[in-house]
Write a structure and sequence with these properties.
Elements lengths: L15 H14 L7 H14 L3 E5 L2 H12 L6 E5 L5 H8 L3 E5 L10 H7 L9 E5 L8 H11 L3 E4 L15 E4 L12 E5 L2 H11 L21 H32 L4 E2 L13 E5 L1 H13 L27 H6 L3 E4 L7 H8 L4
Parallel strand pairs: 2-3, 2-4, 4-5, 5-6
Antiparallel strand pairs: 1-7, 6-7, 8-9, 9-10
Length: about 350
């Protein structure tokens, strides 16, 4: 029996040597926060990476969702429609924006909310919703065009929680896209987030909200906000991450392809396009119900860590057990079977073989 545990995730941020040029710049400028030069340069590089005309950098991805909802949600309404199958931070962000999460089911194939699911839920509500929060499943790119059409048809604002999808985005428009810059993400700076949007007014407002609502040069709080900024030290990490991003993406593609090759003979499903069209920092397989328990037992016996990264759904957390919801049949059936396998740069070919041998 193997004695060495295979870890499920081992994040890696830039080395001290990679950070040093940017730390020297901080020492020279003696600007440490409050939208300093590194903050602006990092913002510009994120804009170039994602094609988003406007960027608001936030202290984490949860606050990015909160601020975007505070600006976009319809005033005087309670509900934010959102998938039950998501990381719990999505639900907390909705509450922090002063809204009530209304939990919906997801597509079994894509593991995401669809316009059709939302449209089917609308007649079941006792009032029109304030917004829809569309969550990208584990870094998959959202379908911006379909959700733009949905908003135009129904007049319900849409906000995207694309926490892990920052390198998979194309066509960011007026509907804000919120991403995470946590250490476990491809563009990870430790803690951080961003709102991406082509709506200049929204970006101006959300950026002001990250700094106590100050608009313009005067220190006058024009709108309610808080302190959601990042320091120049966090921006320095971001700059070093961007320097090394091409090599990191290639390594993630290579590791994804190594998994996909081994899965050709396995009876598990992966997300469409993963490893080819997009990559992220996790790798999930969907296991058939009848094979699930035996698969998990084999992984445990081989000392291979695994995770249900999103748990069993927001409604399974005590904090949201009473959240209003529609039927969640697909979520309840799907969530236990989405298994995160080890995915990091310390995996050897032998490790990958050992992991694959545990799969049905």
């Amino acid at each position: 029996m193997p004695s060495e545990t295979i870890k499920v995730l081992i994040p890696r941020l830039p080395s001290t040597d990679a950070l040093l040029p940017y730390l020297n710049r901080i020492d020279s400028a003696r600007i440490y926060s409050n939208y300093g030069p590194l903050h602006h340069e990092f913002s510009a590089r994120l804009s170039q990476l994602t094609g988003a005309p406007g960027i608001t950098i936030t202290c984490n991805g949860t606050s990015a969702i909160e601020l975007a909802l505070r600006v976009r949600a319809k005033s005087g309404r309670r509900y934010c429609l959102m998938p039950a199958f998501t990381f719990i931070a999505s639900a907390h962000a909705v509450c922090n924006a002063g809204l009530t999460p209304f939990l919906l089911d997801v597509s079994e194939q894509h593991m995401m909310l669809t316009p059709e699911i939302v449209e089917a839920a609308l007649p079941q509500l006792d009032e029109p919703p304030a917004a829809v929060l569309v969550v990208s499943a584990f870094g998959a790119p959202p379908d911006f065009s379909r959700w733009k059409a949905f908003e135009a048809k129904h007049g319900i604002p849409v906000v995207f929680d694309a926490a892990a999808a920052v390198t998979a985005l194309d066509g960011v428009g007026e509907q804000p896209v919120c991403v995470s810059l946590h250490a476990t993400k491809v563009v990870g700076i430790g803690e951080g987030g961003a709102i991406l949007c082509s709506d200049r007014d929204l970006i101006e407002r959300t950026t002001a909200m990250t700094g106590f609502g100050f608009l313009g040069a005067e220190r006058v709080s024009a709108i309610q906000g808080g302190n959601y900024r990042i320091s120049e030290y966090a921006a320095a990490v971001g700059m070093a991450v961007m320097d090394g991003l091409p090599a990191r993406l290639e390594a993630l593609r290579k590791l994804s392809r190594a998994y996909l090759e081994r899965l050709k003979t396995k009876d598990v499903r992966v997300q469409r396009g993963v490893g080819d069209e997009w990559v992220t920092m996790t790798f999930n397989v969907v296991v058939r119900p009848e094979a699930l328990q035996a698969t998990l037992e084999r992984l445990d016996a081989q000392h291979i860590e695994w995770r249900r990264w999103w748990g069993l759904g927001c409604h399974r957390h005590p904090a949201f057990a009473d959240a209003p919801r529609c039927n969640l049949t697909t979520t309840d059936a799907l969530a236990p079977r989405v298994i995160g396998l080890p995915f990091h740069d310390r995996l050897s070919e032998q490790d990958l073989d050992r992991i694959a041998d545990c799969l049905p």
